[in-house]
Design a protein that fits this description.
The structure is a single chain. The longest helix is centred in the middle third of the chain and has 21 residues, at 137-157. It is built from 17 helices and four strands. By secondary structure, the protein is mostly helical. Helix 1 (13-25) crosses helix 8 (168-182), helix 11 crosses helix 15 (301-315) and helix 15 (301-315) crosses helix 16 (322-333).
């Protein structure tokens, strides 16, 4: 299995590109994290990476026989050759050429945006972004070029990604999306919608989750055990992209109590029954394996990920075994979850487009 050498997920924009690409399309690899300490020639980071890449920079893709490929564009092209069935550049020749053009433009350009708004996924810096836009014309120029580029590609190819389906180009611009989010840079609604779709991709979401977790290692947001961490990421990814019947028929509505509606949904929607059964099997296995009180013993990202599901099970009174109901109650009682519930109930809003089963509160 190839090894991908990367830097810190919170900061390393270049590392993010091949990692997201490989993760999103299902190319297996072993991640080798080399944390930044400094970029001095004698730093531990430089010494570790220089053993694979004479330039001493990440990312580096190391093949099974030890052959190393560095630089994101070279890695992307290598993967496209090795996995032609993945269609990493897309299928249309002219679209492939345009995708390579915009990636090359990203690779060598947008220096002002990169300099003024370095990637920092876990941070929220809207004030810094506002100052950068006000004081640095080149940042405004870079952002305008991105908006024009993305708007044209989305209109031409119809979305949801830049060239229709996910390609190298989307992986290449993922770090730019992180910057726009961190610094709250203003973009038109179609571009903002693309940003949200990109961030919702399992590969991108996994990187974001890891970036936040590495920033607060003392919080152990993922389980301490390596295999448990892998399983936690798997079930979160499954939640992220699955359970569509449950989501569709049982939208989250925290202040409501809809047991009669839940009973009808349970009777008439086999997809909902299948989704709940999968949840029961998954949660039962994890609670038994790790001994509770939460899915992996202590609170982790996984419990936060499944908290909205607990809300749905509660609102619609969907039938689950006693151990799962006890887990749902424990999650709802967690201080962070309880605070969310209290604030949701205090909103007093009634949004008819969010209420398929009621005419009023």
């Amino acid at each position: 299995m190839p090894k991908l050498y990367i830097g810190n997920k919170n900061y390393s924009s270049w590392s993010m590109r091949p990692w997201v690409l490989m993760k999103q399309v299902g190319i297996p690899f072993e991640e080798v994290m080399v944390r930044f300490d400094s970029f001095d020639a004698g730093s531990a980071f430089k010494q570790a990476v220089a053993a694979q890449n004479p330039v001493g920079k990440v990312p580096v893709l190391v093949e099974d026989d030890g052959f190393a490929v560095w630089d994101t564009l070279a890695i992307a092209e290598t993967l496209a050759e090795q996995f032609p069935e993945k269609q990493l550049w897309g299928t249309d020749p002219r679209a492939r050429a345009r995708a390579r053009s915009v990636c090359a433009e990203m690779h060598s350009g947008f220096g002002a945006l990169r300099s003024a708004c370095p990637m920092n996924i876990e941070a929220s810096l809207p004030a810094v972004g506002a100052l950068a836009l006000r004081d640095q014309p080149a940042v405004r120029t870079d952002l305008a070029r991105l908006v024009a580029m993305w708007s044209e590609l989305l209109a031409q190819h119809g979305g949801p990604m830049l060239f229709g389906a996910f390609t190298i180009a989307d992986a290449y611009f993922a770090p730019v999306v992180m910057r726009i989010r961190t610094y709250a840079l203003p973009v038109p609604a179609p571009v903002a919608a693309y940003i949200e779709r990109l961030c919702a991709l399992p590969g991108v979401k996994a990187w974001i989750n890891d970036a936040v977790a590495e920033t607060w290692p003392d919080r152990q947001l993922w389980p301490a055990d390596a295999k448990a961490r892998a399983r936690a990421r798997s079930v979160c990814a499954e939640m992220h992209s699955g359970f569509t019947a449950l989501r569709s028929h049982c939208p989250m509505n925290i202040e409501a109590s809809l047991p009669d509606t839940g009973a009808l949904i349970w009777r008439d929607q086999p997809g909902v029954r299948a989704d709940v059964q999968r949840l029961v099997d998954m949660c039962s296995g994890l609670l038994q394996e790790h001994g509770g009180p939460l899915l992996f013993g202590e609170f982790t990202v996984a419990d936060a990920y499944f908290a909205p599901v607990c809300m749905r099970l509660h609102t619609y009174a969907l039938p689950v075994p006693a151990p799962i109901q006890a887990y749902v109650n424990r999650v709802r009682a967690l201080p962070g979850v309880k605070a969310w519930i209290d604030e949701a109930q205090a909103e007093k809003d009634f949004l008819d487009f969010e209420e398929p089963y009621r005419l009023r509160r």
